[in-house]
Structure formats: C-alpha cells, structure tokens
Amino acid sequence: MKEEIIIAGFGGQGVLSMGKILAYSGIMQNQEVTWMPSYGPEMRGGTANVTVILSDDRISSPIVHEFDTAIILNQQSLDKFEAAVKRGGLLLYDPNGITAPPARADVRVCRVAAAEEAAKMGNAKVFNMIVLGAFLKVKPVVKLENVVKGLQKSLPERVHSLIPMNEQAILRGMEIVEG
Questions:
Q1: What does the pLDDT read at residue 102?
Q2: What's the confidence (pLDDT) of residue 44?
Q3: CATH of the domain at 103
C-alpha cells in the first residue's frame, strides 16, 4: 500500500495539522511516512498545503507531482491541484468557498460539507477532523484507533480533553461524505 496525498486550503483551516495527524496515524500503524508542509509567509488566510505519503514500503522521495488523493478546501487549491490527481484517484472537497466545482470525470470526486457541519456542531475548529473522517471513509488508509493515537501524539497535552470531540467530528465526517 502506498498513498500519496495533498491537502490544500487556506492557513487557519487546519490543513497542516490534518496532515500531521494523518502522518502520526500512519506511524502508529507501523507505516513509512513523510509529511512535507508548504505555506506562504502569511499565517492565517494565506494558502497552505501539505504532502503526506503513507506506505508499507520505504519512501524514496517526499517530492510528489501527481497524487492518489487531493483534499481541497478552497478554490485556489482546486485550481492548482485538480489536474495533479492521478487518473482513477480521489478528489475530496468542501464546497464552502468553491465557485467552480471539480470537473474531472476520470477521478472519483467526493464532497463533504465540513464547514457547514462544523457550524452545526458549534465548533469551527473541528472542520479539519470532519474532512479527515470523510477521507478515511472513502479511503481507509489508517484505522480509527490509530487516528486517536495520532491525535494524542500530535496535540499538546493541555488540549487532550478535546480528543473525544475530535473523534466525534471524524465519525460525523464519515457519515456525511457524498460521492
């Protein structure tokens, strides 16, 4: 198994932390992992993306130009990365802020209304975990129990009390993903 993933959106949407949690989850599952963030000089509001590779075998390079999965959280990222999804791959997106939805017919396109659902849950900070749950429903590359371990490893201890809420958001994302 080898999964090459790009997660892209605006800074402040939890793009980098989603990738970090996914990477730690892979480590908890004894997979080989790379996590390579990229972001502009602006912190919140600028574009951010992270490449995560999960593999059962050694990873020769963290540099990827085509992806098995693209998780897209804004229009700029869709414009930039839609064409980089491998034929037969997955493009998962949140429709909030997307003015021109994905148009490719040679990839699986899934939609998760994560921003809307996070608002319904009363906590915008779980947005990225809803998206992560949607991804793991479509492509279960790591087990849920390892994601919980990944949360414990990547989050500071002072916020470990929020892990059950994050787990609930992951489960909710698994329920509401479309496509």
A1: 95
A2: 60
A3: 3.40.920.10
